[in-house]
C-alpha cells in the first residue's frame, strides 16, 4: 500500500476499490492473444490501467477479473504491482463484473470503480472526476458528448432516419458506484443483458451522473483501434529531465546504506528513514521529472511510519507514478559525494540494486562517485551528499 493510500485510510476516507474487468476474449479484434495482453508502448494493455489505479492515492485496493486460462499472462502483466489476487470472470462482461463484485463482498468497500482492461489510456484526472461526483451521487461515469450526426440504418444499408443527437453521450469507464448499491443491482439484473454498469444501476432505479471523460480514453475493440493506439506510442513522446540532491550527516553506527546496499563502516548516517542519500537523490530526480513534488511531500519526515524505513519504498513509489502516467524512465545518473566509504568497489552492486528496484535494464542506471578533495563537510567526513538526474519519457 502506498504512502498516500495509507494516509487516506487513516483519515477515514471512504474505502474505494478499483475492479478491472479483463476476462474477455477479444473476438472482434481477433489474433492469438486476448487483446488485454497485447503489448502497447512496451507494456501489456492491461498493465496500463492497473498501474494508474495502483498509484492513485484515493484507491485503497485494485482487483482484476480474468479468464482462468490467462493466469500466466496476468502474472506477467501485473508483475511488481501492489494488487489483490485476481478472480475468475464469466461468459459476458456483466457476469465478470458481478463475479468481481461478489469477490469484494468480504472486503466491504464503500465505493467501487469498474474499468475495462481494454481502455489503456486512462489518466488519473478522469478517476478524480468520477470519485468527486460519487460524494453526491450513488453512481458517476465519464462520458464524451456525441459529436457526429447519428443515422438509423436498415438491414438493406439504407438510412431510415436521423437520430436527434442532443443529450447523447458516449459512456466510458471507470464507472463509479456505492458498492452495496451496485452489488444489489447486479444481483437483481442477472438474466438481463446490459452493456455497462450504469445501465445496471439505472435498471435498479439508481441515479447516475455524467462527468467529463476524455477523448483519449478509448476502448480498443477492433484492429483499427489497436493501430491507432500504437501510433500514439510512436515517436519520442515528451522527454523530461529532473534533478535531485540530498545530504545526511554522519553519526553513530557501524554501517551506511548507500544506493540501496548496506556498506560496513565505522559510522552511520543520521536520518528519519535509513538515510540513504543515494536513493533519496534518485527518487527526487524522478519526482522532479514528472513534476510530482518531492520525497518530503510523499513521505513526510514527521510521519512515524517512515522511521527507519528502507528507501527502496520511496524509489518504487516514484517509479510507479511514472508508470501511472504511461511514461518510462530512460536514464538515471547518480553521483555519490564522500571521501569514505569507498564507493568504487560497490558501484556495480548499487547499479544493479537501483535497476532491480525500478525494474530497469542496468544499462539505464549510471552510478558515479567523487570526493570534494577534503574540502567542506563531505571532505571533513561530517556528511555524505548525493545528486542525481532522471530522464523520463511521457507519451505525447
Ligand atoms: N466475459 C467478459 C467479456 C468482457 N470482459 C471485459 O470487458 C471489457 C470490455 O469488453 P470488450 O471490449 O467487449 O472486450 P471483449 O469481450 O474481450 O471483446 P469482444 O466482444 O470483441 O470479444 C474488456 O476489458 C473485457 O476484457 C470481461 O471481463 N468478461
Ligand atoms: C462499459 C463500456 O466500456 C462502456 O462504453 C462498454 O459498453 C463495454 O464494451 P462492450 O463492447 O459493450 O462489451
From TrEMBL:
Keywords: Isoprene biosynthesis, Lyase, Metal-binding, Multifunctional enzyme, Nucleotidyltransferase, Transferase
Region annotation 2-C-methyl-D-erythritol 2,4-cyclodiphosphate synthase: where it falls in the sequence: 240-396
Binding residues annotated for a divalent metal cation, in chain numbering: 246, 248, 280
Pathway: Isoprenoid biosynthesis; isopentenyl diphosphate biosynthesis via DXP pathway; isopentenyl diphosphate from 1-deoxy-D-xylulose 5-phosphate: step 4/6; Isoprenoid biosynthesis; isopentenyl diphosphate biosynthesis via DXP pathway; isopentenyl diphosphate from 1-deoxy-D-xylulose 5-phosphate: step 2/6
Free-text function comment from the UniProt entry: Bifunctional enzyme that catalyzes the formation of 4-diphosphocytidyl-2-C-methyl-D-erythritol from CTP and 2-C-methyl-D-erythritol 4-phosphate (MEP) (IspD), and catalyzes the conversion of 4-diphosphocytidyl-2-C-methyl-D-erythritol 2-phosphate (CDP-ME2P) to 2-C-methyl-D-erythritol 2,4-cyclodiphosphate (ME-CPP) with a corresponding release of cytidine 5-monophosphate (CMP) (IspF).
Keyword Ion transport: no
Region (2-C-methyl-D-erythritol 4-phosphate cytidylyltransferase): 1-239
Domain 2-C-methyl-D-erythritol 2,4-cyclodiphosphate synthase: 239-392
Family in the record: Belongs to the IspF family. Belongs to the IspD/TarI cytidylyltransferase family. IspD subfamily.
Biological process terms in GO annotation: isopentenyl diphosphate biosynthetic process, methylerythritol 4-phosphate pathway; terpenoid biosynthetic process
PANTHER family hit by this protein: 2-C-METHYL-D-ERYTHRITOL 2,4-CYCLODIPHOSPHATE SYNTHASE, CHLOROPLASTIC
Gene Ontology MF: a single term: metal ion binding
Record organism: Roseospira marina
Cofactor(s) for this UniProt protein: a divalent metal cation
Feature type site, description Positions MEP for the nucleophilic attack: 165, 219
Catalytic activity of the protein: 4-CDP-2-C-methyl-D-erythritol 2-phosphate = 2-C-methyl-D-erythritol 2,4-cyclic diphosphate + CMP; 2-C-methyl-D-erythritol 4-phosphate + CTP + H(+) = 4-CDP-2-C-methyl-D-erythritol + diphosphate
Keyword Transferase: yes
The protein, known as: Bifunctional enzyme IspD/IspF
UniProt xrefs under InterPro entries: IspD, IspD/F, IspD/TarI, ISPD_synthase_CS, MECDP_synthase, MECDP_synthase_CS, MECDP_synthase_sf, Nucleotide-diphossugar_trans
Catalytic activity, EC: 2.7.7.60, 4.6.1.12
